[in-house]
Amino acid sequence: MVVRFSSLTAIVGILALALTSGCGYLPSEDTVRTAGKPGAHARVTVKTQTVSCGTPARGFRTMGFKEIFTFNRSDNPAFSESGKLPAQFDVYAYVWGHQDCRKTNSCGKGDYYWLIERGPGNDFSTWVVTPQHPHFTIQSSCRGQLKVGERYRFSFSRGKLVGFSR
């Protein structure tokens, strides 16, 4: 009886930990989820959308992720935006995941979306992005127009999202 009780206690404990540990968030995005709470520090800059949802990509110079980010495996995260980015650029990226702003009661600027260069085997149902994989975080009120797993052309101007096209 004691062995069964110990096993049951261990299983319940593991389930409780799994349910309360914030599963589904990118490790480097935990600061977005805890923004405004004591001890929060921003590792990733959120690029907010500053134009209407109907504004297409602008046709700025297209850059790849290898041009946009610098990599250093000893840092955490292992990537950062290059200091030599032009003021305006376009990038092709997939929407990897999103967080509904209604869950955090911060819908002033919309939902959070994570943009990656490409998904592993085009599997967008598994959250395997780690700090070693570069990604953008955007905030957009275009709920329903940005779909997880879809590739878009995004235009950025001075750190803000100023348009996107399918």
Automatic annotation (TrEMBL):
Q: Which PROSITE patterns match?
A: PROKAR_LIPOPROTEIN
Q: Which domain of life is it from?
A: Bacteria
Species of origin: Microbulbifer flavimaris
User: What protein does this entry describe?
Assistant: Lipoprotein
